[in-house]
Amino acid sequence: MSILTPCYNGENLIWRLLDSVLNQTYPKIEMIVIDDGSTDNSAKLIKSYTQKFEAKGYSLTYIYQKNLGLPGAINTGLRNISGEYLIWPDIDDWYNTDTAIADLVEAFENSPDSVGLVRGMQYLRDKETLKIIGRNGNENINYPKKLYEQCLFGGDDWWFTPGSNIIKTKHLFYYYPNKEIYWHGYFGQNIQLQFPILYDYDCITINKYIYNVLVDWNSDSRRQHEYAENLRRTESVKDMCLSVLDIVKNMPLAEREKFKRGIQNLYYERLFYTYLFNKKYKEAQNIFFSQNLRFKNKMIMGLIKRIVKKILSILKITK
Description:
By secondary structure, the chain is α/β, with parallel strands linked by helices. The chain folds into two domains: 2-215, Spore Coat Polysaccharide Biosynthesis Protein SpsA, Chain A, CATH 3.90.550.10; 227-315, no CATH class. It is 44% helix and 19% strand. It is built from twelve helices and nine strands. The chain has helices at 14-22, 42-47, 50-56, 69-78, 100-109, 148-153, 169-175, 189-200, 227-247, 253-277, 281-290, 298-315; strands at residues 2-7, 30-36, 59-65, 85-87, 94-95, 115-126, 132-136, 165-168, 202-215. Strands 1, 2, 3, 4, 5, 6, 7, 8 and 9 form a nine-stranded mixed sheet that branches. Strand 1 (2-7), helix 1 (14-22) and strand 2 form a beta-alpha-beta unit. Helix 9 runs antiparallel to helix 10 and helix 10 packs antiparallel against helix 11 (281-290).
């Protein structure tokens, strides 16, 4: 089992993950931490665990690089892993049970060849209190095995934090023989690592809460960015999603075109919200009408229409 974790300034966070890996019952684990240009004492903390891992019969490899963002750190890690299976937890999350890795591997080994990804359920924990404030997964739900569309566009049956998901490296490197995903900025690695496999293979879910996700309301993914940065990120997400479609070679043309339209529509939706929240009302109006936006949720669609009409009436802008 290869555990690959990018780290940026994780001195005060990664210790929980490292401790939870040390507590695993699975006998063969290599962990590779890619320090993506940290400016704190991450290196000292991570290296202090090396002997502990060796005493357990595990290995811990620390690699420093200049800051390249998460996809860049993942690429460095992919060139250094050697396990049959791969999992890539975030630095602020950790395993909830000592048998988490063993449970995932056992489920994989007892599954048919049609299975390409095995995942467990997750607790969402408040950063300050560590109390459970939510869950990803429900033991009473029989989750579908085909989740590639939800991986790309989101959905109730898919959770985006990947630390409880394992894949086989032979499958991954079939799609990425150069051991390199599309690098475009600071995010997008999770869709790239999982969508091609989910398209060609089934996903099974084990009914155990094996992973803890730390919820930080001030994290980079949750905070409001500057206007120009939001535009850049929106464009990057579109480019990344379009690129991952090209990885799947056996996708029928009609389905590929459907996905491309969906990606473009999602791009314009996000662009519309960015304009709206930054009071760029004329730009929001142009996007809304020129792209004939159709939001999936009818209530949201109705609300957006009313907002646009109200803004236009206030500014005396006509379509």
